[in-house]
Amino acid sequence: MLLVLCTVFLLTGCGDGGYKVKSLVTLVEQEYSIAFRNDDGLSPYVIAAIEELNAEGKIDELSRKWFGKEIIRFGKKENALSELPEPPEHNFLLGVDINSFPMAYMDNGNYWGFDVELADCVCEKLGWTRQAIAIEKENVYVELYSGNIDCAWGGIVLDQSELDKGSYTQYGPYVDNDIIIVAREGSRVWNSLRLSGRNMAMCTTPEAMAALDSDPKLKKRLGQITRLAGGTIECFSYLYAGNCDAVLTDSTAMHYYNSH
User: Fold this and answer.
1) Across 11-152, where does the E strand assignment appear?
2) Quick check: 151 and 144 in contact, CB under 8 A?
3) Which of 149, 151, 168, 215 has the least CB density, counted as fewest CB within 10 Å?
4) CA-CA distance, 2 to 106, in Å (whole number)?
5) Which helix (H) or strand (E) holds 67?
6) Is the CATH number of domain 14-29+178-257 3.30.1360.70?
7) What are the backbone angles phi and psi of residue 134, rounded to the nearest 5°?
8) What is the phi/psi pair of residue 164, to 5°?
9) Domain 31-176, what fold?
10) pLDDT score of 1 more than 80
11) Under a CB-based contact definition with an 8 Å cutoff, are residues 98 and 104 in contact?
Protein backbone atom coordinates (compact mmCIF):
# COMPACT_ATOMS: atom_id res chain seq x y z
CA MET A 1 0.00 0.00 0.00
CA LEU A 2 2.85 2.39 0.85
CA LEU A 3 4.48 1.68 -2.52
CA VAL A 4 1.21 2.41 -4.33
CA LEU A 5 0.79 5.71 -2.48
CA CYS A 6 4.36 6.78 -3.31
CA THR A 7 3.77 5.96 -6.97
CA VAL A 8 0.59 8.07 -7.03
CA PHE A 9 2.44 11.02 -5.48
CA LEU A 10 5.20 10.75 -8.06
CA LEU A 11 2.77 10.60 -10.97
CA THR A 12 0.89 13.63 -9.72
CA GLY A 13 4.02 15.66 -9.18
CA CYS A 14 3.99 15.23 -5.36
CA GLY A 15 1.08 17.60 -4.89
CA ASP A 16 0.77 21.28 -5.81
CA GLY A 17 4.52 21.91 -5.57
CA GLY A 18 5.53 19.02 -7.85
CA TYR A 19 5.84 21.16 -10.95
CA LYS A 20 7.28 24.24 -9.29
CA VAL A 21 10.74 25.47 -10.11
CA LYS A 22 13.35 27.38 -8.15
CA SER A 23 16.06 29.80 -9.20
CA LEU A 24 19.61 28.47 -8.92
CA VAL A 25 21.61 31.40 -10.28
CA THR A 26 20.94 34.86 -11.72
CA LEU A 27 22.91 35.60 -14.89
CA VAL A 28 21.53 39.03 -15.83
CA GLU A 29 19.48 41.52 -13.81
CA GLN A 30 17.09 43.53 -15.96
CA GLU A 31 13.74 45.34 -15.95
CA TYR A 32 10.87 45.84 -18.39
CA SER A 33 9.68 49.33 -19.34
CA ILE A 34 7.38 51.08 -21.82
CA ALA A 35 8.78 53.47 -24.44
CA PHE A 36 7.01 56.32 -26.28
CA ARG A 37 8.16 58.83 -28.86
CA ASN A 38 9.28 62.05 -27.19
CA ASP A 39 6.44 64.58 -26.90
CA ASP A 40 3.96 62.00 -28.18
CA GLY A 41 0.38 63.14 -27.66
CA LEU A 42 -0.92 59.64 -26.93
CA SER A 43 1.40 58.78 -24.04
CA PRO A 44 -0.41 60.89 -21.39
CA TYR A 45 -3.62 58.96 -22.10
CA VAL A 46 -1.92 55.57 -21.88
CA ILE A 47 -0.14 56.46 -18.63
CA ALA A 48 -3.29 57.93 -17.08
CA ALA A 49 -5.30 54.84 -18.01
CA ILE A 50 -2.63 52.55 -16.51
CA GLU A 51 -2.50 54.51 -13.26
CA GLU A 52 -6.29 54.66 -13.03
CA LEU A 53 -6.51 50.89 -13.58
CA ASN A 54 -3.89 50.41 -10.88
CA ALA A 55 -5.84 52.57 -8.43
CA GLU A 56 -8.90 50.41 -9.16
CA GLY A 57 -6.97 47.23 -8.33
CA LYS A 58 -7.11 45.83 -11.87
CA ILE A 59 -3.35 45.55 -12.32
CA ASP A 60 -2.90 43.66 -9.05
CA GLU A 61 -5.70 41.35 -10.21
CA LEU A 62 -3.91 40.67 -13.51
CA SER A 63 -0.59 40.21 -11.73
CA ARG A 64 -2.08 37.52 -9.47
CA LYS A 65 -3.66 35.87 -12.51
CA TRP A 66 -0.40 35.69 -14.47
CA PHE A 67 2.26 35.44 -11.76
CA GLY A 68 0.49 34.23 -8.64
CA LYS A 69 1.44 37.39 -6.74
CA GLU A 70 1.63 41.18 -7.07
CA ILE A 71 4.96 41.94 -8.77
CA ILE A 72 3.96 44.88 -11.00
CA ARG A 73 4.85 48.41 -9.89
CA PHE A 74 3.04 51.09 -11.87
CA GLY A 75 1.93 54.36 -10.34
CA LYS A 76 -1.61 54.79 -9.00
CA LYS A 77 -3.93 57.75 -9.52
CA GLU A 78 -7.69 57.79 -9.17
CA ASN A 79 -9.62 59.55 -11.94
CA ALA A 80 -6.38 60.31 -13.79
CA LEU A 81 -8.15 60.47 -17.15
CA SER A 82 -10.52 63.19 -15.92
CA GLU A 83 -7.56 65.58 -15.94
CA LEU A 84 -7.12 65.16 -19.71
CA PRO A 85 -9.30 66.13 -22.69
CA GLU A 86 -11.51 63.44 -24.19
CA PRO A 87 -9.21 60.86 -25.84
CA PRO A 88 -9.22 60.86 -29.64
CA GLU A 89 -10.36 57.83 -31.58
CA HIS A 90 -7.33 55.72 -32.31
CA ASN A 91 -6.04 52.33 -33.43
CA PHE A 92 -3.30 51.75 -30.84
CA LEU A 93 -0.16 50.21 -32.40
CA LEU A 94 1.44 48.11 -29.69
CA GLY A 95 5.03 46.95 -30.27
CA VAL A 96 5.77 43.67 -28.46
CA ASP A 97 8.61 41.18 -28.21
CA ILE A 98 6.89 37.85 -28.82
CA ASN A 99 9.88 35.98 -27.34
CA SER A 100 9.10 37.27 -23.85
CA PHE A 101 6.60 34.74 -22.48
CA PRO A 102 4.52 35.33 -20.37
CA MET A 103 4.60 39.09 -21.00
CA ALA A 104 3.96 38.83 -24.75
CA TYR A 105 3.81 35.81 -27.06
CA MET A 106 1.81 34.14 -29.83
CA ASP A 107 -1.02 31.77 -28.86
CA ASN A 108 -2.71 29.99 -31.79
CA GLY A 109 -1.87 32.89 -34.07
CA ASN A 110 -3.01 35.56 -31.62
CA TYR A 111 -0.94 37.95 -29.52
CA TRP A 112 -1.32 37.32 -25.80
CA GLY A 113 0.43 37.73 -22.45
CA PHE A 114 0.27 39.92 -19.36
CA ASP A 115 1.31 43.09 -21.19
CA VAL A 116 -1.08 42.44 -24.06
CA GLU A 117 -4.02 41.86 -21.72
CA LEU A 118 -3.21 45.00 -19.76
CA ALA A 119 -2.93 46.98 -23.00
CA ASP A 120 -6.40 45.68 -23.92
CA CYS A 121 -7.73 47.02 -20.60
CA VAL A 122 -6.11 50.39 -21.33
CA CYS A 123 -7.66 50.50 -24.80
CA GLU A 124 -11.06 49.61 -23.37
CA LYS A 125 -10.81 52.58 -21.01
CA LEU A 126 -9.80 54.91 -23.82
CA GLY A 127 -12.27 53.58 -26.40
CA TRP A 128 -9.42 52.53 -28.67
CA THR A 129 -8.79 49.42 -30.73
CA ARG A 130 -5.51 47.56 -30.24
CA GLN A 131 -3.20 46.24 -32.93
CA ALA A 132 -0.13 44.31 -31.74
CA ILE A 133 3.02 44.32 -33.88
CA ALA A 134 6.03 42.07 -33.31
CA ILE A 135 9.29 44.01 -32.98
CA GLU A 136 12.89 43.32 -32.01
CA LYS A 137 13.75 45.05 -28.74
CA GLU A 138 16.99 46.44 -30.19
CA ASN A 139 14.90 48.28 -32.83
CA VAL A 140 12.70 50.27 -30.44
CA TYR A 141 13.93 53.67 -31.64
CA VAL A 142 13.51 52.83 -35.33
CA GLU A 143 10.06 51.30 -34.82
CA LEU A 144 8.83 54.31 -32.83
CA TYR A 145 10.09 57.05 -35.11
CA SER A 146 9.12 55.29 -38.31
CA GLY A 147 5.54 55.39 -37.02
CA ASN A 148 5.29 51.61 -37.19
CA ILE A 149 4.25 51.52 -33.50
CA ASP A 150 2.82 53.97 -30.98
CA CYS A 151 4.74 52.48 -28.09
CA ALA A 152 7.08 49.61 -27.28
CA TRP A 153 5.37 47.64 -24.54
CA GLY A 154 5.48 43.90 -24.22
CA GLY A 155 8.52 42.29 -22.62
CA ILE A 156 10.79 45.18 -23.61
CA VAL A 157 14.18 45.86 -22.01
CA LEU A 158 15.18 49.35 -23.11
CA ASP A 159 18.70 50.19 -24.27
CA GLN A 160 20.37 52.25 -21.54
CA SER A 161 22.54 54.12 -24.06
CA GLU A 162 19.42 55.25 -25.94
CA LEU A 163 17.78 56.31 -22.69
CA ASP A 164 20.89 58.29 -21.75
CA LYS A 165 20.71 60.10 -25.11
CA GLY A 166 17.00 60.84 -24.63
CA SER A 167 16.10 58.95 -27.79
CA TYR A 168 12.61 58.23 -26.47
CA THR A 169 10.50 58.59 -23.32
CA GLN A 170 10.50 55.78 -20.76
CA TYR A 171 7.58 54.88 -18.52
CA GLY A 172 8.71 52.49 -15.83
CA PRO A 173 10.48 50.22 -15.17
CA TYR A 174 7.45 48.33 -13.94
CA VAL A 175 8.69 44.79 -13.25
CA ASP A 176 11.97 42.97 -12.60
CA ASN A 177 12.76 40.31 -15.16
CA ASP A 178 16.11 38.69 -14.48
CA ILE A 179 17.58 36.00 -16.69
CA ILE A 180 18.06 32.98 -14.45
CA ILE A 181 18.68 29.24 -14.44
CA VAL A 182 15.96 27.17 -12.76
CA ALA A 183 15.45 23.54 -11.82
CA ARG A 184 12.42 21.66 -10.57
CA GLU A 185 11.80 21.80 -6.84
CA GLY A 186 12.61 18.47 -5.26
CA SER A 187 15.12 17.53 -7.96
CA ARG A 188 18.73 16.59 -7.32
CA VAL A 189 19.79 20.00 -8.58
CA TRP A 190 19.15 22.11 -5.50
CA ASN A 191 21.83 24.80 -5.95
CA SER A 192 24.17 26.18 -8.62
CA LEU A 193 27.00 23.87 -7.59
CA ARG A 194 24.84 20.89 -8.54
CA LEU A 195 24.67 22.14 -12.14
CA SER A 196 28.07 20.62 -12.92
CA GLY A 197 27.68 18.11 -15.75
CA ARG A 198 23.90 18.64 -15.88
CA ASN A 199 21.89 19.03 -19.09
CA MET A 200 20.21 22.39 -19.68
CA ALA A 201 17.65 23.68 -22.19
CA MET A 202 17.45 27.26 -23.37
CA CYS A 203 15.90 29.48 -26.05
CA THR A 204 17.79 30.37 -29.20
CA THR A 205 17.36 34.14 -28.78
CA PRO A 206 20.50 36.33 -28.84
CA GLU A 207 19.59 37.63 -25.38
CA ALA A 208 19.60 34.11 -23.90
CA MET A 209 22.89 33.27 -25.60
CA ALA A 210 24.49 36.47 -24.30
CA ALA A 211 23.27 35.74 -20.77
CA LEU A 212 24.90 32.31 -20.77
CA ASP A 213 28.12 33.73 -22.21
CA SER A 214 28.21 36.23 -19.32
CA ASP A 215 29.32 33.43 -16.97
CA PRO A 216 31.97 31.39 -18.84
CA LYS A 217 32.90 29.36 -15.75
CA LEU A 218 29.31 28.19 -15.31
CA LYS A 219 29.01 27.49 -19.04
CA LYS A 220 32.04 25.19 -18.88
CA ARG A 221 30.64 23.33 -15.86
CA LEU A 222 27.37 22.49 -17.60
CA GLY A 223 26.94 19.29 -19.58
CA GLN A 224 24.88 19.22 -22.75
CA ILE A 225 23.12 22.49 -23.63
CA THR A 226 20.03 22.03 -25.83
CA ARG A 227 18.88 25.10 -27.76
CA LEU A 228 15.16 24.96 -28.48
CA ALA A 229 13.52 27.14 -31.15
CA GLY A 230 10.09 26.81 -29.52
CA GLY A 231 10.82 29.39 -26.84
CA THR A 232 10.05 29.35 -23.12
CA ILE A 233 7.02 27.05 -23.37
CA GLU A 234 9.03 24.35 -25.14
CA CYS A 235 11.89 24.71 -22.64
CA PHE A 236 9.60 24.12 -19.66
CA SER A 237 7.88 21.21 -21.43
CA TYR A 238 11.35 19.75 -21.97
CA LEU A 239 12.14 20.17 -18.25
CA TYR A 240 8.86 18.64 -17.05
CA ALA A 241 9.31 15.68 -19.40
CA GLY A 242 12.63 14.92 -17.73
CA ASN A 243 14.66 15.67 -20.85
CA CYS A 244 16.91 18.16 -19.05
CA ASP A 245 17.91 19.09 -15.51
CA ALA A 246 17.63 22.87 -15.75
CA VAL A 247 16.33 25.68 -17.94
CA LEU A 248 17.71 29.14 -18.70
CA THR A 249 14.68 31.43 -18.54
CA ASP A 250 13.18 34.70 -17.23
CA SER A 251 12.10 35.30 -13.65
CA THR A 252 8.62 36.32 -14.86
CA ALA A 253 8.33 32.91 -16.54
CA MET A 254 9.36 31.25 -13.27
CA HIS A 255 6.58 33.14 -11.45
CA TYR A 256 4.11 32.08 -14.14
CA TYR A 257 4.94 28.36 -13.99
CA ASN A 258 4.98 28.36 -10.19
CA SER A 259 1.37 29.59 -10.17
CA HIS A 260 -0.16 27.57 -13.05
Assistant:
1) 21-28, 31-36, 91-96, 105-107, 110-112, 129-134, 151-152
2) yes
3) 215
4) 44
5) helix 58-67
6) no
7) -75, 130
8) -60, -35
9) D-Maltodextrin-Binding Protein; domain 2 (3.40.190)
10) no
11) yes
Spatial separation of the C-alpha atoms in residues 146 and 165, rounded to whole Å: 18
Burial of 233 (C-beta count, 10 Å sphere; 0-12/13-18/19+): middle
Query: Which residue type is seen at 169?
Result: T
Instruction: Name the nearest CA neighbour of 23 among 184, 233, 245, 231.
Output: 184
Q: Hey, where are the domains in the chain?
A: 14-29+178-257, 31-176
Amino acid at 260: H
Shared fold status for 14-29+178-257 and 31-176: yes
Residues 6+ apart with CB under 8 A from 185: 17, 18, 20, 21, 22
Higher pLDDT, 10 or 71: 71
Angle between helical axes of 114-126 and 43-55 (0-180°, round to 10): 100
User: Rounded to whole angstroms, how far apart are CA atoms 67 and 62?
Assistant: 8
In this structure, how many other beta carbons lie within 10 angstroms of the beta carbon of residue 207? Answer: 17
The count of residues in the chain is 260
Q: Is the C-alpha dihedral spanning 17, 19, 25, 30 positive or negative?
A: negative
Residues 109-132 have a mean pLDDT of: 98
pLDDT digits (tens, 9 = 90+) for 161-196: 999 999 999 999 999 999 999 999 999 999 999 999
